[in-house]
Amino acid sequence: MKPRTKTFVGLEIGTSKVCVIQGEVRADEGIKLLGIGQAVSRGVRKGEIVDFELAHTSLSKAVEMAEKQSNLPIKEVYLGISGGHIEGGNHDARIAIPEVQQIVVEEDLEDLKEMARDIQLHPSRAFLHSIVRDYIVDGRQKVVNPVGVPAKELAAHYHLIHGVRSRVQNTIRCVRELPIEVEDIVFSPLAAAQVLLTRQHKDDGVLLIDLGGGTSDYVLYRDGAVAASGSLGIGGDHVTNDIHLVCRVPLQVAERVKTRLASVYYDSRNVGQLVAVEPDGEFPGGELDQTLLNQVVHMRIRETFELIRGDLEATGMYDPAQVKAGVFLTGGGSLLTGIHDLAKAVFGVAVHQGGGDVASGNRTTAENPQFATAIGLIRYAQLLDERPAGKKTAPAVGARLGGWLGKAS
Amino acid sequence: MIEIPRTAGDFAKRERGGYKVRLLGLGGAGLNIMSRVASEGGDAKLMTVLDTDVRALKSSRAAVRLQLGSDVTHGMGCGGDPDLGRESAEMSEAQIREILRGSDLVFLCVGLGGGTGSGAAPMIARVAKEEGCFVIAAVTLPFHFEGRRRQQQALDSLTELRRSAGALLTFENDRMGDLIVPSSGVQEAFAAADRMISQSVRAITVLLDKPGMIRVTLEDLLSFLNGKDAKCNFGFGEAEGGGRAEKATAEALAHHLKEPAGLAEASSVLIHLAGDNSVTFAEVEHVAAAVSAKVHPECKVLLGVSASQELEKKLSVAIITSVDQARRMSRPDMEPRGQELQVTPLVDLPPLIRQAPMAAPVRMPSPMPVPMANPAPAAGGLFGGEGRTGGLPPVAAQPFEPGKGLPVQPAVSPLMAGPAPMAPAPVSLGQSLPPPPPMAPLPPSGPRQVPFAVPPAPGPAMPKEPLPPMSPPTSEQVFRGLPVSPVSAAPTGEAPEAPRPIRTPGALGDPLDYPASKGRFEGTEPTKVSGVDLDWPTFLRKKRAQG
Fold first, then answer.
1. Mutation choice for B interface testing from A61, A170, A240, A247 by most B CBs within 10 A
2. What is the 8-class DSSP label of residue B354?
3. Three-state SS for B415?
4. Which of A192, B38, B48, B209 has the fewest CB atoms inside 10 Å of its own CB, making it the most exposed?
5. Residues of chain B contacting A244 with CB distance shorter than 8 Å
6. How many CA atoms lie within 13 A of B363 on its CB side?
């Protein structure tokens, strides 16, 4: 039978840019990019929509652009979600298998998950993902699929990702007003991980950090499964703002200076090294102390990395020796000169640039780390789609989302 | 606390009279307004007055009196300088926050144009908003005879106020028309202006705080204010004895009728009828009918009645008309990124049930409030309910409402074509925050820091000197920055022709100044980890920690 192709759309609403990508997935696992739409993001702060109207406009533009390129209308999307309110944590559950039953059945997995999720979340919060890390059957670890296995006791390790319900709903609502249906929501770095990291990476242990305009998101894999994840409300905008406030240049000049002139390397003994800054609007131009500039940038990024490392260590999951594949950096922030070295200094492992050739079509754009999340959402959709029908542990996509949609704000 | 201000939707959930209302009188005019409100029966316990002038404060009856910026103005007022006003308020920020905390609704009453009022109002509105209060700013704009400088200061302040105020009631003193008999003196003029606001404030607080026979909710009120920004006209009448309702109404209407645009153009009318316990249904009927007859059939009419012992047999009628401000056409390059709430016009609302103005007898409605179709957009429309842009099913109108419908298209008042916001530069990424105000350049300092060669970033306080004509830049010019404007403060001489250093942050031994504003993150919900506000530059935080 001829392998069917399906089209999925990934939508990422970032603080700097909105990105929507239509892709066709083929049975051989490649993704063909049919349409890419981008727009400057307005009305989004630290990964969250704060102004509906502005965000709506940005979204519309991006969607139109993609539709124009692909010549296909976009009716539903897989939506990437981010924001400092999102947290991930590990929780376990354990049940006894009734003697009369003897083997593990699907329902047991459901029960286990419910138990693990019974963690007294603050009422304002809801789950985004409940990811099985490991099943343990009678003490035996790493059981991939315990269904049908004879057992007396079944346990599982879960990684649960949750966020403030209303904030997520806001984003969903904004998309639905385009109007476009939201098929599913995905914590953004998880999506990016689908395209940037291989199975091998995940098995070896790898940390992915997505440095966006409004947030820095991360996900840590160990033994093939998500071991830690989270989002920090600090991003490229903070770097720009730091330059703006400390070097006393207007914001848009700071942005330019950041992308073109700054690096994380500085030596405080280096004085008087000046770099020219072009005029811009009312800003008459001038010179800037390179050392100070770099120091400002360095300190902000170092702090961000240190905060992530601190969070990871608090989970007890971060051990440089166990992260053999190292750190992958992606997102706009990853393009900063010298950031790899800084990451290496903080995390103590090798650092790589995320962004590769997992998608065909327009190759150069696909390699751009800024598209990793949107493409990752398509891959995520593909994976969900490929799950064998009837497997009850993967509830229908729409049903998953049911808890997020349709209820009052 | 999320950065989006609470919308009217939150308030809708409150019980009757459950709003914690606070009246703030700011500056000289603000204090006078408070006195008036108090003498007309307002509750002094709800009032707070703030001023830089200590003597004025002393004579106020308000429950809370705060002197602003004692170190700056030493209790003597600002002399009409808004910068001093702002500074004074900033110095007292912590106390202001204390006072505002816990209030739901804050009325900020201020006469714009002078120092304390114009300077402090935007900042206080912002603080109130941050503390979770919904701010209704009731402001007056100066008489033309007060001069252009005060006009300009008032307009500047108004522009800033718009950002933080949940709703804005603007009264132009000039348009008071015949509230003042032409032969009366300037004092009279000011007194009448104050009364205009005080009555309006009173009308509104009474509506919310002490519901009378007919309740009006905050949503009604906000829809009355047409989204955010209402240009109001005011008429007031008072009478006693037989036919008092007719007389008071006629008097109140008389003012409006003199206005060319007044009643006919009003998109909403708020009537406040106040009297003692002898107010009758017939009187209320009359007032409502008389006003409805004069307004456009689609004008929204809100009627609040308060009957209270204090008001002693006189019946007073206040009629406030509101015309929606033109939706501000801000240039796309000036649009701040999500920082400023957008005014949401109510034109999306489907027409509600109309009734012919005169024909419908004014039946006394049940205590049900006038329901509004869509509470949220009026207050800024960020998180209106589902299908916000799709329109909502119409809601049955109250019997006596003469007609509700699409608001009349806004009329732009020439006076309200305010100054453009301060952001000077066209922006590529949609950021329009003005650069931080220039501060006096620090002297070049110790071994580690080298003064910059960048001339001070342009800021609002910097007069715009035309730059000298440039000859084709030599390499020296390019790398030295532009010639220095003579207006800037002189640096200490570094090299003979060294261009001005810009303010060097944190030179060794100097105290590190945090800039006045958080730049990009000003007014947004901070990212806090372990109690530390990470929005401030890491550089500054660490340097400060080092000592």
1. A247
2. B
3. helix
4. B209
5. 435-436, 519-520
6. 8
Cβ partners under 8 Å of residue A214, min gap 6: A14, A15, A16, A44, A45, A46, A47, A48, A82, A233, A235, A236, A237
pLDDT in tens, A41-55: 988 989 888 888 899
Neighbour count for residue B354 (Cβ, 10 Å):
14
Nearest to B537 among A84, A245, A271 (CB): A245
Residue A338, H or E segment: none
Q: Report the distance separating Cα A61 and Cα B505, nearest Å.
A: 41
Q: What is the token pair recorded at B269?
A: 């009318």
Nearest to A57 by CA among A185, A174, A182, A188: A174
DSSP string, B174-204: GGGGGGS-TTS-HHHHHHHHHHHHHHHHHHH
Residues whose CB falls within 8 Å of the CB of residue A273, separated by 6 or more in sequence, listed in order: A289, A290, A291
Q: Please tell me whether residue A354 adopts helix, strand or coil conformation.
A: coil
User: Residues of A numbered 80-99 whose beta carbons fall under 8 angstroms of chain B's beta carbons: which are they?
Assistant: 84
Of B410, B400, B160, the closest CA to residue B266 belongs to B410
In angstroms, rounded to a whole number, what is the distance separating the alpha carbons of residues A219 and A84?
A: 14
Sign of CA dihedral B29, B35, B36, B37: positive
> Is the Cβ pair B337, A43 closer than 8 Å?
yes
Strands (E) located in A50-144: 76-81, 87-96, 125-137, 140-143
Backbone angles phi, psi at B159, to 5 degrees: -60, -45
CB A12 within 8 Å of CB A3:
no
Chain segment B83-124, per-residue pLDDT in tens: 888 888 988 888 899 888 888 888 899 989 888 999 999 999
Question: Nearest by CB to B450, which of A244, A272, A276?
Answer: A272
H/E run at residue A388: none
pTM of this prediction exceeds 0.90: no
The residue that leads in pLDDT, B262 or B130, is B130
- The reply to whether ipTM tops 0.90 is no
SS3 B310: helix
Q: Which regions in chain A score pLDDT beneath 50?
A: 1, 356-364, 390-399, 406-409
H helical segments located in B141-298: 148-164, 186-209, 218-224, 244-258, 262-265, 281-294
